Amino acid sequence: MKNNKPRKNVLITGASSGFGYAIAESLTYNGWTATNIGRSHSSICDKNILIDLSELDLLDQKIKELSLSEINKFDLIILNAA
């Protein structure tokens, strides 16, 4: 039987390694679509926005690359990057 439930979407900062990767891995295994924001590419995430989060002046520009419809689609946002 096919699952017709829409996939849930999560935005995770720092999902390329460590705790953030483990969270992304668990959620994607359970059917979520994951987006990573961080310095490094995350192989487990469907989309990656590469930026060093300490560069706040560039962060605003990178976030604007997401359309409003993309931002509104997140069911969960996890601010993991330290």
List keywords for this structure.
82 residues; alpha/beta; four-stranded parallel β-sheet; 4 strands; globular
Describe the model.
The protein is α/β, with parallel strands linked by helices and 82 residues long. The chain contains three helices and four strands. A four-stranded parallel β-sheet has the order 3-2-1-4, with helices on one face. Strand 1, helix 1 and strand 2 form a beta-alpha-beta unit. The longest helix has 12 residues. The chain is globular and about 40 Å long. The N and C termini lie far apart (42 Å). 22% of the residues are buried. The mean pLDDT is 85.
Task: Summarize, please.
The chain has helices at 18-29, 56-64, 68-72; strands at 9-13, 33-38, 47-50, 76-78. The chain has 82 residues and is an alpha/beta fold.
Report the uncertain regions.
none
Rg over CA atoms: 13 Å
Q: Which term fits the overall shape?
A: globular
Order of helices and strands: EHEEHHE
Number of strands: 4
Counting H and I runs of at least 4 residues, what is the number of helices? 3
Average of per-residue pLDDT values: 85
Q: How widely separated are the two ends?
A: 42 Å
The main pleated sheet reads as: 4 strands, parallel
Biggest sheet strand order reads 3-2-1-4
Q: How much β-strand is present in the residues?
A: 15-25%
* Helix/strand structural class: alpha/beta
Binned, the helix content reads: 25-40%
